[in-house]
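Dear colleague,

Thank you for sharing your sequence with our group. We've completed the structure prediction you requested, and as agreed, I am returning the results in plain text so they can be pasted directly into your records. Please verify that the sequence below matches your submission; if there's any discrepancy, let me know and we will rerun it promptly.
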Amino acid sequence: MKPATRTSIIFVSIIVAGGALSAKWVMKEAARVGREQEARRALRAPKGVDMAWIPSGKFTMGSNDGQLDERPIHDVKVKGFWMDRYEVTNDQFAKFVQETGYVTTAEQSPDPKLFPDAPKENLVPGSVVFTPPPRVETLNNHMQWWSYVKGANWRHPEGPESDIKGRGNHPVVHVSWFDCEAYAKWAGKRLPTEAEWEYACRGGLEQNPYSWGRERFEKGMWMMNIWQGQFPNENLAQDGFKGTAPIGSYAPNSYGLHDMAGNVWEWVSDWYRPDYYSKSPRDNPAGPVDSFDPDEPGVQKRVGRGGSYLCSDMYCKGYRPAARQKTSPDTGLSHTGFRCALDAPAP
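Please find the predicted structure tokens below.
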């Protein structure tokens, strides 16, 4: 090999090696800067590091692939706001109760005037618990696996003999919409609107089937806490959890929000109407002024979002970003919780 040729090869090798090292340094430096920026944003969060800033933007709300009340899809603009990174936990709710003496809806006796036909012995504090029978013939009647359990509440999720020991970092459940609103006011926050919730859930991704993207699994791993097996009797718990999961058990979306799919349904501020999307304002929609559900015309309902650990592909795909749940605001359920939002300056 001629000296000049060898020198050229050595020179090129040095350049290539230097380029690789430079690229590696640039990537490492970019990651470091990104972490520092995220830390600064977190420190500037009005209520601490548990809130993420959701920047203003525009997105397509709803879905053509889901239920009728998810249509029509429509463009919505949302102003920037803060949102809890995690669902409100049992420990956080316990602190609220301890400081205020608050008594949840499930811990109060139902008003006889609201249930004139109910036997007096049934008008006792309690909540609705997932209680599947040994066998289910059809999935057309959800009342088969839901039971009003006396003594069930946020402290006793499965009934009076259960408790939340060891579940302090699990999302609080059996909270009515009124309970969630009371907590939010105490915390200096509010419940997010339905539009804010879906916008935050999508994480800047347009019309994807999941809050993290298009692939159900990333690197072969479960990305959400939902039901695996023959619903409602066979719970294989392939994702590691038969019931609620501790907050932060799954990776966040691109806005830094955890459990926007599965784990527990989350109350939002909006009244429920199946036709609202056809006349919703395009800028920061706050929901309809009243409620109407054609399935139960006499029952006022609020909206829930996100799905839960009971969502099954063979029955309920509520984990989709556009999926909606409708529930009476005075109802507590063993798969429903919430997270809060906040209006405050951007970081």
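Summary note from our side: Residues 1-23, 33-43 have pLDDT under 50 and may be disordered.

Kind regards,
the structure core
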